Amino acid sequence: MVVRYLTSYSYRLFGSYFSKRRAKYFDLRQELLKTRFNISFDMYLSLAVLCSLLMVAVGLLFAILVVSAFGAPDIIFTRSFITDIFKGFNEYRNLTLKIISVVVITGIFGVGTFITFLNYPKLINSNRKRSIDTMLPYAVHYMSAMSGAGVIPVDIFSSLAKNKIYGEAAVEASYVVRDIKVLGNDLVQAMKNVASTTPSYRMQEFLQGAITIVSSGGDLESFLKLKAEQFVIESKREQKEFLDTLGLIAETYVTAFVAGPLFLIVMMSVMTIMGGMNLMLMYLLIYLVIPVGSLLFVILVNSMTPEV
Q1: What's the pTM value of the predicted model, to 2 decimals?
Q2: Burial category of 224 from C-beta neighbours within 10 Å (exposed 0-12, middle 13-18, buried 19 and up)
Q3: How confident is the model at residue 256 (pLDDT cuts 50, 70, 90)?
Q4: Does 189 or 288 have the greater pLDDT score?
Q5: For the purposes of burial, counting CB atoms within 10 Å of the CB of 53, is it exposed (0-12), middle (13-18) or buried (19 or more)?
Q6: Looking at residue 87, what DSSP letter applies?
Q7: For 4-60, what is each residue's pLDDT tens digit?
């Protein structure tokens, strides 16, 4: 409810400005279509501006609290023609640095929020693409079985859309059904619309093949069986490649964050005992480098792991 109110209010404030600049935000419009958010680009950008302004207020408050608690960074200026020009600057240096710190922190909050909004659809589409590619082989098998039972294509897509176990593949099927039953398009045009807006190239290729078969009056059942077998082969190949890559990552992890740190810790301990090294480097290695490196490897493996 709050998001809906903010979206409506922001659109009343900034909607007309962005509506006149459709061509400038063409890429964002395409990304939003692929996310299936059901929000126009001018509404989305209006919400982005409003949230950025709100974050500017939050950033201003945060910056004032930080500067009041810790002060501004102390910058030492060497003698130069700049300091000669502004001879009286040192009297107001602390105040000026505080103002600059507040402005920078506030700007980071505001600009960072707007940039996050601009890039958020790309992140969503990346996750959707992976989900669609993962579930598509199973969805095509389901469609092939229904086609073999004599179900017409529209009902196949409708049944697939209702099966949420197929994840984002079912969402794409639901948009085919929406274009047919709500917008009044035929099956071919509905598949063309979804093919042009899906983030998955594999789904796009499948729909384009289905369009050719349906348009030419070909055997859809044979096509679905062929694509199902093709996707199974590709899935097995991708899983094998993933396992090979995972093995390489595991070897790298053991070398860089198990054997390597143990060797360094032993070497640093000996050097510390001999009085030739500060313990701070060992603390950084144990409490910072190893945990952060391990966390990055976990994130890397999680981002590469296919959703099965």
Answers
A1: 0.76
A2: buried
A3: confident
A4: 189
A5: middle
A6: G
A7: 888 888 888 898 888 888 888 889 999 999 999 888 899 999 999 999 999 999 988
CB distance 147 to 224 below 8 Å? yes
Read off the pLDDT of residues 92-142 as tens digits, 9 standing for 90 and up: 667 777 788 888 889 999 999 999 999 999 999 998 998 898 899 999 999
Query: Is residue 151 domain-shared with residue 94, that is, in the same domain?
Result: no
Domain membership of residue 269 as a residue range:
233-304
CA 59 to chain centre: 24
Q: Are residues 239 and 164 in the same domain?
A: no
What is the sign of the dihedral through the CA atoms of 32, 134, 138 and 203? positive
Q: What is the pLDDT of residue 300?
A: 83
Determine the residue type at 180.
Answer: I
Residue with the two structure tokens 């710190």: 101
Tokens (6 digits) for 36: 């299936």
* List of residues 6+ apart from 174 with CB closer than 8 A: 161
- Out of 126, 146, 165, pick the residue that ends a domain: 126
Closest CA to 190 of 161, 149, 223: 161
Same domain, 60 and 167: no
Q: How many domains in the chain?
A: 3
Whole-angstrom distance, CA of residue 160 vs CA of residue 151: 12
CA distance 52 to 108: 10
pLDDT of residue 241: 87
Per-residue pLDDT averaged across 247-273, rounded? Answer: 85
| Distance between CA atoms of residues 9 and 19, nearest Å | 15
pLDDT of residue 9: 86
Compute the radius of gyration of the chain from its Cα atoms: 28
Residues 15 and 117 in one domain: yes
- Cβ atoms of residues 121 and 32 within 8 Å: yes
- Tell whether the model's pLDDT for residue 69 goes beyond 80: no
Phi, psi of 163 (to 5 degrees): -90, 95
